[in-house]
Design brief:
The protein has helices at 8-30, 34-53, 58-79, 84-105, 112-117, 125-144, 146-154, 156-161, 166-183, 185-202, 211-236, 240-272. The chain has 273 residues and is mainly alpha-helical. Helix 2 runs parallel beside helix 4, helix 2 (34-53) packs across helix 9 (166-183) and helix 2 (34-53) runs antiparallel to helix 10 (185-202). The protein is globular and about 70 Å long.
Length: 273
């Protein structure tokens, strides 16, 4: 690579992941399915290890086990009604543990730190293509099923009563989420991706009037977080993935402090008037 191009590819990756993750997060949060995204982000690990062991494309392996983990969690959630979160967290822990165990069992040479926390500066053109494919799948779902997704998020029971293909829509969301998580692995890793899925959405979810507006605003915030995190990491010689994760947390802390201050000022104003 030339002295100019070495940072262009990581920046493109950061911009794409910064848009795709928050838009996916907006769909998941409005449908109250964020915990499933956290599950998928951990369930891809066994597939990645198996894919590397058998010299298959890692995105295929991660996608398969991500979907398997999500489907297993759905099944166990129905079996343990009222304890769904416990079942999902158990599946999450089990798949993550299986992925770690498979590394020595299959004698796979894998950088677990890079998988878990990302290595954006090591991204290549294949990673960029994967992210573009995930973005295309997300765009197709959002455009073709926008009204159905809004209905499902607002009134799941009403959507089922109206004979919408609820199971198919949720499976499509699971598939797209798995694609997004695997494509974001290079940028922020399978552990930190949940921060980029949620933080930009939480910044705006209380002040928007439509799902479309939420997706656009969250994507803008995600762009700032991912690109800003990359540039800051390059300047400070720090790993970009963890720094982006810290920025996500810092952004929510700033919002929380600002919200508390505004509420306190409003209370004081009411007392004096």
């Amino acid at each position: 690579m030339t002295s100019l191009s070495w940072w262009v590819l990581p920046l493109l990756m950061a911009l794409l992941v910064g848009m795709v993750c928050p838009v996916t997060g907006a769909l998941l949060i409005t449908q109250r399915r964020v915990l499933q995204a956290n599950l998928i982000s951990h369930a891809v690990l066994p597939g990645l290890v198996l894919a590397l062991a058998f010299e298959v494309d890692p995105i295929l392996g991660g996608l398969i086990t991500g979907l398997l983990g999500a489907l297993l969690a759905e099944h166990l959630s129905r079996s343990f009604s009222g304890r769904e979160e416990n079942a999902i967290n158990t599946v999450l822990a089990g798949f993550l543990a299986l992925g770690v165990l498979l590394v020595p069992l299959l004698q796979v040479r894998i950088d677990l730190e890079a998988v878990l926390f990302g290595d954006l500066l090591a991204g290549n053109i294949t990673d960029l293509i994967r992210t573009l494919l995930a973005a295309a799948a997300l765009l197709l779902l959002a455009v073709s099923r926008y009204q159905d997704l809004v209905f499902l998020g607002v009134d799941p029971e009403g959507a089922a009563a109206a004979h919408l293909p609820v199971a198919r829509l949720r499976f499509s969301m699971t598939l797209v989420t798995s694609l997004v998580v695997v494509s974001a692995m290079t940028a922020v890793g399978v552990v930190l991706v949940i921060g980029l899925l949620c933080a930009p959405v939480l910044m705006h979810v209380e002040r928007v009037v439509s799902l479309r507006s939420l997706m656009l605003r969250a994507a803008g915030t995600g762009l700032l977080l991912s690109s800003g995190g990359l540039l800051l990491a390059m300047g400070l010689d720090l790993p970009p993935g963890p720094l982006i994760g810290v920025l996500c947390l810092g952004l929510l802390l700033v919002k929380s402090i600002a919200h508390s201050s505004a509420s306190e000022m409003a209370t004081r104003f009411q007392r004096h008037h």
